[in-house]
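Record type: ASSEMBLY
Status: queued
Input:
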Amino acid sequence: MTPIEMSIDADSQSSAFPTSASERNDRPAGLRGSLSSVNGISALTIAVLLLVWWSTTTAGLIAPLFLPSPQAVLSKFWLVSTTGFMDSTLWQHLAASLGRVVCALLSAVVLAIPTGIAIGLSRIAQGMLDPLIELYRPVPPLAYLPLIVIWFGIGELSKVLLIFLAIFAPIAIATAGGVRQVSQNRLRAAQSLGATRWQLLRFVVLPSAVPDILTGIRIGLGTGWSTLVAAELVAATSGLGFMVQSAAQFLVTDVVILGIAVIALIAFALELSLRALSRRLAPWRELGHH
Amino acid sequence: MSTLVIDQVTVHYPGSAAGVAALEEVSLVIGPEQLVVALGPSGCGKTTLLNLLAGFLQPTSGQILLDDRLVRGPSAERGVVFQDDALLPWLNVLDNVAFGLQLRGMARAQREAIARRTLQLVDLEGFETHPIWQLSGGMRQRVGLARGLAADPRVLLLDEPFAALDAFTREQMQELLLRLWRKTRKQIFLITHDLEEAVFLATDLILLSPRPGRIAERIKVDFGRRHAEGESARSIKSDRSFIETREHVLSLVFAQREVSSA
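Status: finished
Output:
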């Protein structure tokens, strides 16, 4: 340590607010604690929840019909993974559900991004498409599910279509927002380097909108995944939603909890991986640059 | 060698107060090897003037000609450097500098060779693969300058390029700009509200006055040329004639202000 640093340190310790170095490191963001302490608190909350669940059920305070013990759910997990439930193993149910969501996601991405770009760039497209999207977006998927069944039957198409509609709107809206927010100077800079209209779209507008598109996909995937159970209400023979539904009908509560837990874990994993993807593809956004 | 001519240009913004022009009857010639600096307070129309030259804006009346051809819109023959660098954050330094050449369809190897050479000119050797959001403000402006130069425009237009930098970096960048101007022999048009910067850099200093925007004064200066020929910036800026010119321009600015507020 140089003498100057030492004197600064000495000054800060003799100042009106005597905080030690370690205390200052714990609270770098001022009022809020650091990220690692937030994660620690989150882990602790979940641990306490599991402990309460384990102790109340093991002590026999709650009937297994209402809340089976964690051990029971865990052994059911093993049973459903190996021998299965309703003619399919847990992994087959999971694969069926993921297949539907991935199928819906891919078609939504392919169609919603061009739609969003059109809305963002053209007033005619905005006038035509905006009201359509804004009309169906706030309606709960369960409300228009009967209509989809009447039109498209009870096959896979209806299920994928329901999830697709839930994913489509957030991606289209986010893409349009990203396209509208491209900085004027960035466009002008490209124009004064000789960019044509097509080149502006390809090299400036589209990459500028990538962070917003990723946010749209993240939100869309969240709503799409939660629409899954509704989609699998209709004459499904496999899928996590179907598994939970039929287990509930037979009052197999441990399978219900197992299914819910798997649905929650998958949703969490999707969210985390999309956040990681967004940090990787648009690291400048994390730093507040646009 | 090119000549950029602004011929009796008037600009009215739609919706602005009737009768007050952003620019009124402005005429100006930017000839070969000139470094024209437009100086004025905010609202005097200097940004409007730059936007006209870049082609971002069309005059209400009058015309702008580059080598006798009418300027109709933005083009690669008039490069622009912005105050907020306007770089593309998803590209690294080298790809940002090569961007104009890429738009022209130049092969990767060739455009990267040119971009590397241009980065040497702005003293950014070794930063080729850095993401631009990791660079300081001064370095980003250097990348912006290099991007403008790499596309080899006939005229380089700079929109308050150093206004957001700290004082030390600003002086370095001014000296860099003079070196680049000497080396590339490009003609440069720069707008600023920094009086000392204007006097130091310009070969031709244009003083603009607001409401309506018009050219109040044209002054020939040679300090930039002296620096480009080797005299140090400190010796120029402490030179009696530099201080006299600066004070003279300052008195003109104040005289303007009294006229316009009277």
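Annotation: The two ends of chain A are 38 Å apart (CA to CA).
Annotation: Chain A has two domains: 20-62, 74-286.
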